[in-house]
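Objective 1.3, modelling of assemblies. Example input:
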Amino acid sequence: MTREHETSGRKRALDAMASMPADLLGERYGAIAKTAPQAIPVRGPEIGAVMVRGRIGGGGAPFNLGETSVTRATVKLGSGEVGHSIILGRDTEKARMVAHLDALGQITAWQAVIETDVVAPALALDAEARRQRAEETEATRVDFFTLVRGEDR
Amino acid sequence: MYVAVKGGEAAIEKAHRLLADRRRGDRSVPALSLEQIAGQLSLAVDRVMAEGSLYDPELAAMAVRQSRGDMIEAIFLIRAYRTTLPRFGATRPVETAAMRIERRVSATYKDIPGGQLLGSTFDYTHRLIDPAMAGDHPVEPGARRAVAEDAAYPRVTDILNGEGLIEPDIASDAEPGDLTRDPTGFPAGRDLRLQALARGDEGFLLSLGYSTQRGYGRTHPFVGEVRIGLVDLEIDLPELGFAVNIGAIRVTECQMVSQFKGGGQDGPRFTRGYGLVFGQSERKAMSMSLVDRALRADEFDENRAAPAQDEEFVLSHCDNVEATGFVEHLKLPHYVDFQAELDLLRMLRREHAAEKTAETDRQEAAE
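Predicted structure (tokens):
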């Protein structure tokens, strides 16, 4: 696997897991963690903030909009793989699970099961949630029509 | 002479106990859950996040509950909490052009590309109290309609920019100022002004925006576009060497198109005001964009005469936590201050009385 390929796969998994509801992630993680190598905590999980930035006018220079709470974690496996996570909110357990899965994802033997049991369902769930919201919004679209005016008759 | 006294402690303790009791209210009524507050009073939660300057719906719901619905008190709680958090960094600037749209309207173009999407709005309601709100009647889910594969919602400013009719954004990756880290000096850059306005009091900004419409710093505005929806937050992780998406937040953006300015190399074109706030709040985003435009008076050689154009006035007074702190501190003991005033006043009155007596004596002697 090329370095670039590896990065995009890892990013895809981290993005997907961040979007996954904690209870579903916990369920899937629980099944994997039973037989997976254990995670040794390296940093955190710790709660903090990141500054959210916008752009002046939407496309200009950055400005600081306000902060959001985040949780990050770093873990290590006995075999040396290091996993990282950073997620929106203050769920330390979720951050720990994501970091552990990120570490496991670097071991070829675990990639398929993480993809099938965690990443793919997370992406499907997110896509469905997006689709529902988009369709609900779409239903409120204004379909303008013009009335026939008197002088046109 | 005034001697420092103690004795408030026991009363304060009992007052706080009473506060907890009153906050809980009738025990036969179930307590509010955070899910109820975040789910059913979501716009209150959005305001607390925006002005508390921390996006965290669960925490904002706790603050609303703890403050008994006193919004400024809740905002204060969030501000206090955020100071305890270590700062891990900053996100990449959010891409509002790629927003997952939940509402999007333009008052300038009926046929704006992407269309007018009303979303969940109070607009066009009759503003009559609905008797159904007294009960718990079943509520229909939102209707659904398939979205076109190639659906796109270009920002109205990008549309006008094609013809050069409107001032463009000046792309830059300059590091923005941060008023939570450095004291604000004047004149302040537009980055700092927008940060202050984004966390500023909705009521204050609404009134200032309104004042510009009534002639105090007139800018002749149109809502080019208001959009509400979810934007992804991306943060660079140095440990990984790439950016990750940490989740999405809801924001409201307003592009206010304002009166055109002529001359220069570019010819006459519309000017703009910009609003961006956490959560769903178009009143706040619109007010912010009006005030942002008014505060750009110097850029367009406008006479700075109205309150909304005075950045020191606006930025020094738009923060409701600072404002409430200074106003509300007046109710705390000022016994010593006041005693000094009393002493001074008594002395002045004695002098005044003595002068009056002397005057009367002089007059009597003259007669």
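Chain B is about 40% helix and 15% strand.
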